[in-house]
Specification:
Layout (H helix, E strand, L loop, with lengths): L9 H28 L4 H6 L7 H12 L1 H11 L4 H8 L10 H5 L1
Length: 106
């Protein structure tokens, strides 16, 4: 093994983390879709839990996904925004400043 430490440029590091983040999100989505959403009861979910996740950990995931706040956020994320919401969202100031009055009225 080499005695040199491997170093990455900042831009390379950002790309690597972006790829890892995307893969992790897809993995979580797949687990939820195949082992939570697919089944109606906690019993069925536990019976069909992913074999690479310990049952105790999957129980915690089930508790988390059953929380009201999480279910509301999931529902909101699935809804397609209307044109007015999209217009306001894409015209937000990058520095966190509020929109001008005319745009806010839309």
């Amino acid at each position: 093994m080499s005695s040199k430490n491997t170093s990455f440029q900042i831009s390379e590091k950002k790309v690597v983390f972006a790829i890892l983040n995307d893969a992790w999100r897809r993995h979580k989505c797949t687990i939820k879709e195949k082992h939570f959403t697919k089944y109606k009861t906690t019993y069925d979910r536990l019976k069909n839990h992913p074999r690479d996740i310990p049952e105790s950990h999957f129980k915690e995931l089930i508790r988390y996904w059953n929380l009201g706040d999480i279910q509301r956020a999931t529902k909101e994320n699935k809804e397609t925004p209307n044109q007015a919401e999209m217009f306001r969202e894409i015209r937000q100031s990058k520095k966190g400043k509020p929109l001008d009055q005319e745009t806010t009225k839309l």
